[in-house]
Amino acid sequence: MSPKNTTKMPIVFVHGLWLHAESWNPWIEFFHEHGYDAIAASWPGDAATTEATRKNANAVAGYGVTAIAEHIAKQIKKLDRKPILIGHSFGGILVQKLLGRNLATAAIAIDSAPPKGVPELPLSALKSAFPVLSNPLNFCRAVSLTEKQFRFSFTNTVSDQEAEELYAKYAMPAPGRPLFEAATATFNPNAATKVNVANTTRGPLLLISGADDNTAPSVMVQSTLNLYRRKSKAVTEFKEFAHRGHSLVLDSGWRELAEYSLSWLQSKHL
Question: pTM of the predicted model, to two decimals?
């Protein structure tokens, strides 16, 4: 991501585990067309493309939520003004952390990993995390999903053909550490997934959920909403999309999400 000098409102997209910044390319084009300066942030160790990152998987290994958040914070601090942040999956919790630090004007978290304080752990979420959490050595490793695992965790609501295409195009290794940090957050007072949900001066936050998401089930996203609303009067809103899974930002239905996100931002005069 390169710093931009522009009078347009910047939007920074933040990917999650097993995806690359280039997975946001359709969204970047969409928001460019609607007058925003849209760019995507990298995670530490990311190469220039998905394919290049696959070939150097060890480069992403070992990074946790705090290090990734700081890596992104350095990128957005180079911009002329505080951006809007849009994040998916673990990118969702990253944008919440940065919004809580008042580093963004607003944020949209899509199918976000849960911040510390969300007690729900549905079986489907546990199954999605099992390829990483089943081996403690994965804490310091980069882990890839098989096509079958990606099908369950991401593409459970699309056709077999589309699922195969999405896996081939987008799936890549991811650091295992963030999932261990999320799994142990309840027992760690200084958990890396802790978010300043009590911030009353932050910008507005939209939480989006796919109703059929196995990785970040809607019950967890709604619990995140309740956590915010118990702690702060800052604007926090929720939208659920029926029949959508974790691939909702990159599958053939992505535009529905993008259009809703645009409308929400416009409703906040952003």
Answer: 0.95
